[in-house]
Amino acid sequence: MTGVHLTAPSVASTAPPTSRMAEPATGGRFGDHGGRFVPESLVAACAEVERTFREAWSDATFRQRLDRLRTVYAGRPTALTPAPNLSAELGLTVLLKREDLTHTGSHKINNVLGQALLAHRMGRTRLLAETGAGQHGVAAATAAALLGLDATVFMGERDMERQELNVFRMTMLGAQVIPVRSGSRTLKDACNEVLRHWVATVDDAYYCAGSVMGPHPYPWMVREFQRVIGEEARAQCAAELPAAVPTHVVACVGGGSNAAGTFAGFVDTDAQLVGVEAAGGAAMTDGAVGVVHGYRSRVLQDADGQVAEAHSIAPGLDYPGVGPEHAHLGDIRRARYVTVTDDEVVAALRRLARTEGILCALESAHAIAWVLRAAGTAELPSGSTVLITVSGRGDKDMPALMAAGR
Amino acid sequence: MSGQLATALRTAPAPRLVPYVTGGITANWTDYLLAYQDSGADAVEVGLPFSDPMLDGATLQQASDRALARGTRLDGVLADLAAVRDRLTVPVVVMTYANPVVRLGVVEFCRRLAEAGASGLIVPDVPVDELGSLESVAAVAGIDLVLLAAPSTSAGRLREICARSRGFVYAVSTMGVTGERTALDDGALTLASRAREASDLPVLLGFGVSTPAQAARACRAADGVVVASALMRKVLEGAGPDRLARIVADFRAAMDRAA
Ligand SMILES: Cc1ncc(COP(=O)(O)O)c(C=O)c1O
């Protein structure tokens, strides 16, 4: 017994270092990570979500409804766009998976359509969501409007000031936005507050987590709802690339949902999987093992276990934790996690805009920034084929960039 | 099977009263513990301040924030506790969240608690399914690991929680976070009765027990109460140990009258 484990190490941690990104082990374990660290009063609610998800996911009617919404509402499949100009400049073959082209402008819609249908199936009338940048909040408000559900979105007071436009969008969509004034008044505090609220409303409200975080089954379920990114991209790469599979698959990591969805399509190939974190919010690089928001994973924290605040120019990456499956993929070295700085990110956003005419979100620009830095080095040799997930569009970030004089 | 906490609570002659204080809330915070003891507490609960107290309402969040803003560290809280252990005859139960336990390591954390003289531990975001090594490590260190039951807990789970809890069974009175309430939920008494049937240990109701009258009512079904937010609100307002001693004495008197 090492003493650093709160739970006995699971069987998966001694298994060979592979991951198919399939179902987690019993109790929602990804190696030593994951689990369901919630108060007793939320255990039954989480178990009900798990049960309903399992049923729905093997129910052809549910899958058809979701597929149809993805097509006629969200605008899927999204394009795989070759980036010829950037490719020529970098000596690489760069392909962009265009989640920025979805309805509401980011991959978050993939997740909320799935969860909103699930809430509906469970007879819940209200979606609860936390949001940092506001992208998940907007997506949740959108799905709620579509399916006739109420939406209550918890948002740190400081984030509300930084993301006024998205607050207004949520209100336009009929959602109630609740300012969170506790702690650091940012995303991590909104995550606490939504769980506090859910404890008291489990009978009529459904908690709609915004990333591959939270108690079991959320990390697994959200990855399954995002898997569509990787599956589409896999088929599109097969049509686009002589080798069918890229040598590198790159995505930004906040909680890690767009990366998890993308990686799921390529985990069984030889492609190198690279997750890019913000230097000021790099739980994979700088975090220690801990428990927050219902799951065990890497967390930015001090020596006493007080959770630290993250700092990134991209509000969607301002999160001190990271999805437990990423911690596991890192442990077994199936994926690598790297960081880029705010300055590199702004330069990358501008470079993609000018070379390809694509104005991506600051979050997505993290993935671009790493490719720009690594191109032509041993990490990413000339001639590599690189799939980058563009998780969202940049419109939301223009006011902040203008204000910062960038 | 159990330590000092279990013995003290099992042999208490009257309804058990366990008042709470946030460690490090003021420089003299351990004086509150002594005041509680003098006013008839059967045990005292010490909350370790935490950055992300997800099961706490506004009052205990504020108490935690204030303690952290004073620069309170785990080391300091434990040193303060160790310094009063000779004068504290009632057992000390520590309440913390999972993250600090994992960060220090389960073995080290329990060892340090025991060293400071604590005899019980409550970790509200570690449900019975996630106990892992904590259960045996705490037992070896002589720490009674207290488990929580909620109104939503099924009969099967309640049996398991009661069988594996040590010291007492903590019955959470409401589907919600900590904080004062105008009335005790009916569900609270139902849960306490269910837990009592399933357990040999004392069953204490907590979360939102706000007034002496509510505490007295709680004791119709439970073996006692944990009182936190109602006391910490006073502390946050600036009330000192003497004032808190009188408030706890009022709880004690109301509970004894009802018994
Ligand atoms: C455009 C965009 N990309 C990425 C993220 C980060 O989330 P995740 O790591 O779950 O994909 C966000 C979160 O708000 C986002 O809005």
TrEMBL record, chain A:
Keywords: Amino-acid biosynthesis, Aromatic amino acid biosynthesis, Lyase, Pyridoxal phosphate, Tryptophan biosynthesis. It catalyses: (1S,2R)-1-C-(indol-3-yl)glycerol 3-phosphate + L-serine = D-glyceraldehyde 3-phosphate + L-tryptophan + H2O. Pathway: Amino-acid biosynthesis; L-tryptophan biosynthesis; L-tryptophan from chorismate: step 5/5. Residues 1-33 are annotated as: Disordered. Its cofactor is pyridoxal 5'-phosphate. It comes from the Bacteria. Signal peptide: none annotated. It is an enzyme of class 4 (lyase). One of its GO terms (molecular function) is tryptophan synthase activity. Its EC number is 4.2.1.20. The keyword Lyase applies. The modification N6-(pyridoxal phosphate)lysine is found at K108. Residues 74-392 form the Tryptophan synthase beta chain-like PALP domain. The keyword Transport does not apply. Transmembrane segments: none annotated. GO terms for cellular component: cytoplasm. InterPro entries: Trp_synth_b_CS, Trp_synth_beta, Trp_synth_beta/beta-like, TrpB-like_PALP, TrpB-like_PALP_sf. NCBIfam families: trpB. HAMAP family: Trp_synth_beta. Belongs to the TrpB family. Tetramer of two alpha and two beta chains. The beta subunit is responsible for the synthesis of L-tryptophan from indole and L-serine. This is Tryptophan synthase beta chain. It comes from Mangrovihabitans endophyticus. The gene is trpB.
TrEMBL record, chain B:
The keyword Lyase applies. One of its GO terms (molecular function) is tryptophan synthase activity. Tetramer of two alpha and two beta chains. The active site is at E45 (proton acceptor), D56 (proton acceptor). Keywords: Amino-acid biosynthesis, Aromatic amino acid biosynthesis, Lyase, Tryptophan biosynthesis. Its EC number is 4.2.1.20. One of its GO terms (cellular component) is cytosol. The keyword Cell division does not apply. The gene is trpA. The alpha subunit is responsible for the aldol cleavage of indoleglycerol phosphate to indole and glyceraldehyde 3-phosphate. It holds the Pfam family Trp_syntA. This is Tryptophan synthase alpha chain.
